[in-house]
Design goal:
This protein is mainly alpha-helical. The chain has 4 helices and 3 strands; from the N terminus they run βαββααα. The mean pLDDT is about 80.
Amino acid sequence: MNEVPERIWLQSDDDPESDWFAELIVTWCQDKINDEDVEYILATKYAEMEAENERLRKKLHDILLVDTTDGMTASEWVDRTAKAESQLSQLRAATADANVGFMIQNKALKKANEQVAQLRKALEECQFLLRNYESCECDIMEPPCPKCIVLKEVDDALKGER
């Protein structure tokens, strides 16, 4: 043969009913025909492929061991990056939780402020009623009457809230 193919495919007639050794027929072709065909590679081609495979394996090894500016290998950078991404993901989750907590606190504070405003309004109404609907003669009484005591407490409460 003048031109030897670099690879061939062996085909056989695998009849399970036949006497395997006596009736086995094997042929070859440059193309794969059946799923059961077996590939054979020319020994010189196989050696070239092995050499290329070894060259690529060394190149990959060199790439993974290249020192970076921080003295880390590429694989260490990959590990550190994965860890940083994991921490960032956890931080984002914690931030989201904190935002939910803040929104809940904000709603509670808003409601508390609304209640304080309602109480202040009630105290101001009480103060108005105490001052305007009953006359008091505390100027001449000792100790002051209950109305004046309550009025002073309301006045003090309103002064302290503002």
